[in-house]
Amino acid sequence: MQYDVILPAAGSGKRMGAGKNKLFLELANKPILIHTLEVFEKDEACRAIFLAVKSSERSFIQSQLQKYNITKVNEMPIGGDERQHSVLACLKVMDTGDIVLVHDAARPFIEQSTIHALIRKASEKGAAIAGVRAKDTMKRVSNGRIEETVERSSLWMIQTPQAFDFELLKEAELSAEAEGFLGTDESMLVERLDKEVYVVESNYENVKITTKEDLIFGEAILNRRAGGK
Ligand code: CTP
Ligand code: MG
């Protein structure tokens, strides 16, 4: 089953504090953005990549694509101030009617097996997102005081990729835009339409590189993988 992928890459990486888009920072001598792009470049089921970028970074990214021989980037629309708007910018230049995957460019460690499980589930059910089970004890807190301990077994920490029937995601994004609703992931927009979304169990390595500590974790993952483990 073929799919297209939307990669929002138009953030500024404020929490990383690197003074530039964190996606240009290197792990194992390669930009984070390229690590993520390579996953999809190598995946035969991936037909095309839609990359949302900042206008000021567009030509630099173009040169990086050439340098690292990334050939599947179809379009590079200019992203918006919010991640949701960057995803929408990609959807607006797409015309496919199949499965579309949305994946943070800042999650370079996603595994092909998870992607394919998501595609299978989304083609069967319409919507499927990656997540992992919560590990810690979870409590609801208000003004520093515990209100309740929340039953952990039903709690999942949600990641990307998130896979959808193309028309469903487009409808959800356009309806959110029309009503000025801003969600923190694509699933929220689909949930608003009262559609079912399924979760596919991913793994704890699929982190979003957000702060400096994540770079240490990332180097460790790449070292281990380079050792064939
Ligand atoms: N992103 C985007 N457009 C935005 C904001 C974010 O395309 N307006 C992208 C980022 O480039 C990243 C992904 O969405 O690949 C997840 O966002 P996040 O990890 O929050 O990255 P930043 O927004 O860049 O970081 P920060 O929130 O710390 O500024
Ligand atoms: Mg952000």
Indicate the CATH topology: Spore Coat Polysaccharide Biosynthesis Protein SpsA, Chain A
Reading the helices and strands in chain order gives EEEHEHEHEHEEEEHHEH
| Percent helix | 25-40%
Query: In terms of per-residue confidence, which ranges show pLDDT below 50 for 5 or more consecutive residues?
Result: none
Provide the CATH architecture: Alpha-Beta Complex
Extended strand count = 11
CATH class, named Alpha Beta
The fraction of residues assigned to DSSP E strands is 15-25%
Q: Which strand order does the major sheet show?
A: 5-4-1-6-10-7-11
Number of domains: 1
Distance between the termini: 28 Å
- Mean pLDDT equals 97
Number of helices: 7
Classified in CATH, the superfamily is Spore Coat Polysaccharide Biosynthesis Protein SpsA, Chain A
Secondary-structure-derived class: alpha/beta
Q: How does the overall form come out from the CA principal axes?
A: globular
Nearest-angstrom radius of gyration? 18 Å
List the bound ligands: cytidine-5'-triphosphate, magnesium ion
Largest beta-sheet characterization: 7 strands, mixed
Keywords:
about 230 residues, alpha/beta, Spore Coat Polysaccharide Biosynthesis Protein SpsA, Chain A, seven-stranded mixed beta sheet, two-stranded antiparallel ribbon, 7 helices, binds cytidine-5'-triphosphate, binds magnesium ion
